Amino acid sequence: MSFSQKIIFWYSANKRSLPWRNTKDPYKIWLSEIMLQQTRVSQGMPYYERFVEQFPTVHDLAKASEEEVLKLWQGLGYYSRARNLHTTSKLVSEKYNGNFPNTYKELLSLKGVGDYTASAIASFCFNEAQPVVDGNVYRVLSRYFGIDLPINSTEGITYFKALSLKVMDANQIADYNQGIMEFGALLCAPKNPYCLHCPLSDSCVALQKGKINVFPVKLKKAKVKERYFNYLVVLDKFNHIEIRQRRGKGIWQNLFEFPLLETEKEYSLEEVKKTMGAILELKEASEIYQFNEKTIVHRLSHQHLHTKFWIVKSEEKRKNGVSFDKLKEYPVPVLIAEFINAFKF
User: Could you give the C-alpha distances from 84 to 34, 72, 73, 79, 88, in angstroms and in order?
Assistant: First the structure.
């Protein structure tokens, strides 16, 4: 059997039962693929099910507000995916009358749809012979063929795409693509792969050379940026909490948070008192104290957010204040959501 035939044979016997595998609906395939980028299947599954329940068609998603979409997405991270999802749903609903483009080339024109997602939709829904190349595929191919090109380099991306085109099974493209991703997720795992049970073990270069843990090769990541966040949780005499919407192109765009004082180092209570006037229009605070005893370090892909929550009580009514019940309706970053769950308003 060829490489692709072995993958398909293994897949037929070992594939997981996942809801998006029981449909050819491009909307549901697209939804699942966008969600599963940088997200484990176990984490993404509940979100997929909630989205399909609340927005059963692309028209339903297009009619929703951005806040509704972000709130339902809350906790999945990489919120630009949700914003692009919403933008594209409107385009498909209005321009294409709810029918997704049916070719790889046309799918690439949709916002938030790159090579991988376009290949997945084109092959799963329309049987177009386009190979998918995700993290699992990179790992399987680099180990099996012993390829030491960095997978996150321009040369590596081009090479692996060409190799994928060469080894794919064009006649069973949907099963091959699903199979090689499943193979990487379950058998050829990042750590402790099941080489003893692998149908490719007799010809795997990495296994033969004892270099399983070497592949895939990656260029070093950019240096992690350390940031210092001081959230000012302002409570007025009506027990309303001040919130603001994040703007700009940085992290958490369009999500809501408490007034933020960002500093170049960790601040003490006295330092916060001296500088919070630049953030808050507040005549006087009746009480200020630090909520979390230890600084919370919230880790993102290229940033570590050293975070303190400061409770600021005031007799003044806050113009952006909302009740606690209302606060729960706003889409917020996980960091804020965890504070809301922990703080007793």
Answer: 9, 14, 12, 9, 6
